[in-house]
Design goal:
Blueprint: H1 13-23, H2 27-34, H3 38-50, E1 57-61, H4 67-73, E2 78-83, H5 86-96, E3 102-106, E4 119-125, H6 134-144, E5 145-156, H7 162-183, H8 189-199, H9 203-212, E6 216-223, E7 228-234
Parallel strand pairs: 1-2, 1-4, 2-3, 4-5
Antiparallel strand pairs: 5-7, 6-7
């Protein structure tokens, strides 16, 4: 029997990538079940915050099977769906081959295979906390973004209400694991999910990390009582540069 990959908080890229390879086929269905359908609402909120326009070039990092990328491309933008899991990329290509405006690229967020200032906007959903060096990833996102370009991060966060926080911990600790083992091809992967969420930065701390990476106009808003937070920022415009239109 082949042993399932199970990442830990060291976030070794090979182990994290292997873990996502194993869950690729059922990843979107599992996410919808475990989030009680909220994943679709979070995706809508992210696309609205990104505010893509026809003709813009947008990088969707940790794109998985490309579900978010396809939603963005419906606005007329050109979307590069990037992920460091070959299994996710293969599944995305299988599902969305021929979708106008979407291309798939295998890429490491800390060493992106793109030129400087190539994109009008960069977005990453539920992937930044899986990057071994998230701060290096934030700097790479800045590098490939045009001056004045946008960053949108949708990520699990910390509920601000003690009551909601307690309920959320109960769900993650007692309800989510047995459901994950029932509906996912690698239930152990969702034990890592819980660990990574508990260890992840809260809203103000992540905002500080984004600023430290060089982004400006950093702001966030909570979704689903702070279970998820949507962070937004812009790349500073240098002397003589203009914001993307």
């Amino acid at each position: 029997m082949t042993q399932s990959h199970r990442a830990d908080l060291q976030k070794d890229p090979a182990r994290v990538s292997g873990m996502f390879d194993e869950v690729a086929a059922g990843y979107d269905r599992t996410n919808t079940i475990l989030s009680v359908g909220n994943d679709r609402l979070w995706r809508i909120a992210t696309t609205r915050a990104l505010s893509p326009r026809p003709g813009q070039r947008i990088l969707d990092l940790a794109a998985g099977t490309g579900t978010s990328s396809v939603a963005i491309a419906r606005t007329g933008a050109e979307v590069v769906a990037a992920d460091f899991s070959p299994g996710m990329i293969a599944e995305g290509r299988r599902r969305h081959a021929g979708v106008p405006g979407v291309s798939f690229v295998e890429a490491d967020a800390t060493n992106l295979p793109f030129e400087d200032e190539e994109f009008d906007a960069v977005t990453i959903s539920f992937g930044l906390r899986n990057v071994q060096d998230a701060d290096a990833g934030l700097r790479e996102m800045l590098r490939v973004t045009k001056p004045g370009g946008r960053l949108v991060i949708c990520e699990f966060s910390h509920p601000t209400s003690p009551a909601i926080s307690a309920l959320y911990r109960f769900y993650n600790d007692r309800i989510l694991p047995p459901i994950a083992r029932l509906v996912s091809s690698n239930g152990d992967a969702y034990d890592y999910l819980n660990e990574s969420i508990r260890a992840w930065s809260d809203q103000p701390a992540l905002a500080g990390r984004i600023r430290a990476a060089g982004w400006s106009d950093v702001a966030w808003r909570n979704l689903t009582f702070g279970v998820v937070a949507l962070h937004r920022a812009r790349k500073p415009v240098g002397d003589g540069a203009s914001e993307p239109r």
